[in-house]
What we know:
The complex is a heterodimer.
Chain A: H1 21-37, E1 52-57, H2 63-74, E2 78-83, H3 92-104, E3 109-114, H4 119-125, E4 130-136, H5 142-156, E5 163-167, H6 174-185, E6 189-193, E7 208-209, H7 213-218, E8 223-226, H8 242-249, H9 253-262, E9 265-267, H10 290-307, H11 316-323
Chain B: E1 5-14, E2 17-27, E3 33-37, E4 47-50, E5 55-58, E6 60-65, H1 78-87, E7 90-95, H2 106-119, E8 124-126, H3 142-147, E9 152-153, H4 163-175, E10 179-182, H5 187-190, E11 195-196, H6 199-204, E12 208-209, H7 211-228, E13 232-234, H8 240-251, E14 256-260, H9 262-266, H10 288-300, E15 305-306, H11 315-318, H12 335-344, H13 351-365, E16 380-391, E17 410-420, E18 423-425
Parallel strand pairs in B: 1-4, 1-5, 6-7, 7-8, 9-10, 10-13, 11-12, 13-14, 14-15
Antiparallel strand pairs in B: 1-2, 2-3, 5-16, 16-17, 17-18
Amino acid sequence: xxxxxxxxxxxxxxxxxxxxxxxxxxxxxxxxxxxxxxxxxxxxxxxxxxxxxxxxxxxxxxxxxxxxxxxxxxxxxxxxxxxxxxxxxxxxxxxxxxxxxxxxxxxxxxxxxxxxxxxxxxxxxxxxxxxxxxxxxxxxxxxxxxxxxxxxxxxxxxxxxxxxxxxxxxxxxxxxxxxxxxxxxxxxxxxxxxxxxxxxxxxxxxxxxxxxxxxxxxxxxxxxxxxxxxxxxxxxxxxxxxxxxxxxxxxxxxxxxxxxxxxxxxxxxxxxxxxxxxxxxxxxxxxxxxxxxxxxxxxxxxxxxxxxxxxxxxxxxxxxxxxx
Amino acid sequence: xxxxxxxxxxxxxxxxxxxxxxxxxxxxxxxxxxxxxxxxxxxxxxxxxxxxxxxxxxxxxxxxxxxxxxxxxxxxxxxxxxxxxxxxxxxxxxxxxxxxxxxxxxxxxxxxxxxxxxxxxxxxxxxxxxxxxxxxxxxxxxxxxxxxxxxxxxxxxxxxxxxxxxxxxxxxxxxxxxxxxxxxxxxxxxxxxxxxxxxxxxxxxxxxxxxxxxxxxxxxxxxxxxxxxxxxxxxxxxxxxxxxxxxxxxxxxxxxxxxxxxxxxxxxxxxxxxxxxxxxxxxxxxxxxxxxxxxxxxxxxxxxxxxxxxxxxxxxxxxxxxxxxxxxxxxxxxxxxxxxxxxxxxxxxxxxxxxxxxxxxxxxxxxxxxxxxxxxxxxxxxxxxxxxxxxxxxxxxxxxxxxxxxxxxxxxxxxxxxxxxxxxxxxxxxx
Lengths: 324, 431
C-alpha cells in the first residue's frame, strides 16, 4: 500500500516507546490511503475479512471504543464489544480468567482499555491474539499518539524540527505521555505548560517547561495541544476553581487570538470542556484540528489493525494459502 | 513642593557595614538620594537636619503584621497599623490574611491594597490565604490573589493540617514562584496550652505547649516543600531544635527561609512572672537556651529575617486569666528600640546583621528591591537616636492596641525620623 518497505509485523501494540521511528512512519503512511477511503461511498476494504476483533473495555469509554469498532468494521472484521466493570475484576487472576474465556472464542485481536498500568501487556503475554492498548491508567495511549502524529503531518508535512506545546493536566493524562513520546521520536521539540500540581515528577528532561502561557506562545509552537481537564480534579485540590484554571491555564480569548494571529494549530483529545481548556471560538478556527483528530483516529486504528499479526494458529485452509 | 534636605553628621549603618560610618545624605526635592558622602556642604536652600550622634539605617521591613482590617477594626486598622509601623522605623509591611473575612480572593487582596494606598504613608502588602476561609479544605484562588499582588500565601495561625492538600498548595504556588509562609504547629499537641511546656508552666500551673508541636510541623512542611520544589518560609521560629531542622534543610537545598520575632530573641518563659497576658503569644516564649540558639542562628545567617508578628488585641480581650486570653502581642513600635537596648548596644548583635534581617533580606525574599545609601535611589531610611528614650506609654502609642510586654517601660533608643521619598515622616516627634 505504500512505498515505504513494511517493517516486520508485531503481534501487539502496547506503547509508543517500543516502536521505532520507522515503524511509526510506516503506520502513519499506511493510515493515509485508509483515510482516502472515507470519502468513497463504500468505505470498506476486505483486509480483515473473517477475523474477529474484541473490544475489551474495563473502563468506560464510548468514543475510543466506537473509533476502534468503526476501524475494524471498515476492514471487514467482525467486532464484539465487552464492557467489564472494574468492580467485578479486581485481581490479576480474574483478568486472566476473562482473557482465557475470550480466547476460547478464538478472537484474533483484543483492544484493551484498563485503568491499571501494564494490564494490556499482561494480557498480551497470555493470549495469541494481537493486543492493542486502547489507553491504560495515566500511562499510555498509543493509538491516540499515532492519530495525533498523523493529524500533525497532514497539517504541516514533515514534523522534525516542529514544536508542540502540551497544556494542562499532564499528570493524569495518558495522552500527554504518548503524544510527547511520539513527538520526540519524530524529531519535534516538546514544551509543557501546566500548574505545578499537574506536572508529573520525573518527567524527561527534553520537555521544556514554561511559567506563563504567553511566554509559551512566544516560544513559537506549531501546535498547542490542550489536555482534557477532568472536573473532579478540583475536589482533589489540583487547582482552586475552573474559573481560575481557565484564566491561568486555559486558552482564553486573548491567547486564542494570539495563536490565530500566528497560525498555531490547536489540538485536544476530546471530549472538550468549553470555557475551561478553551473558549468556544476555537472550534470554528480554521486551524483547529480537534474534529480532524477524531476522523483520523479511525484511519490510524485501521493502520494498526492492518499491520499487527496475531499469533493465532492458522487454520488448514489458510496454511495452504501461505504455502501456495 | 518640598525642599532638598541635608541629613548631616549622622552615622550610617547598612547591610554591608557592621560599624557606623559618618555619612551625609542630600535628599532632593523629588526624594532621591542626590548625594551621599562623608561630608557634604549644605547647598543653598536646603533644609539641614542635624543628625549628629544619630544612627542612619535603611527603612525596616516587617513581613509579619496583623492589621485586623477588615473585620476587627476595634483592634487595629490598616491606617493605625501603618502609623505604628512608621513609629517603629518600618517603611514596608506585610499584612497577614487572618482577617474577617479572611483574605482569600483576588478582590479582597485588592481591597487591602487599595485601602493601604489611600491611608498608609508606607507601602503595605497583604498575604493571601492558602485555603478558602483558612479552613484547610479547599485551595483558595491563589492565582487571582497573586495577580492582585499578594506577596505570599499562608493560612496563618491555622496551618494546613492535611499534608496532601498542603503538597498541592506548594506545587500550585511553585508555578507562580509564590512564597508559602507557615505558622508551624500541630494543633492536637498544643490544644489547651497557653505557654511553653516545662518547669515554668509546671510552676505557674498553666497548661503547656510542647516545643515539638512546632518542630514536628516544621519538619513536615520542609519535607513537603522539598518534594514540591516550592519556596517556603517558616514564620516565627522559637526553638533550637526547630532551627536545626531548618538549618539542615537549607544545607540539603530546600528552598526555605525563616524568621524570628524580637520577643522570642529577647524574652523567655522565665519572664512570665505574674500571669501577665502580654507575655502570651503563639508560639509561646521558650527557654533561655532557645534565646541563645536563636541569636546564634540570626548571627550565622540560618535565620533570614526578623519579623514582629505584631498581633493587636484590645485591652478588654487581653484582660482575662492567662489561659483564656487570646494569643498575641504588638511589636511594631517596640521592635527596634528593644533590639537596640538589649542586643545591639551590649555588642551582641551587629548593626549590619540587624539591617540585613530587618530590612534587606525580607524584601529580597519577596522579590523587592532593598533600600540603602546609594546615590540616585529613592530615599528610604530611618534616623535613630541611640541615646533617646522610647516610652512605651499606652497614651501615646499609635497602634490601637497596647498589648505589649514592654508596656510602661522606657526603652533606650528612639526612632526620630523616617525619610521616605520626598516625605519626612515623624518629623518633629518628641522623644
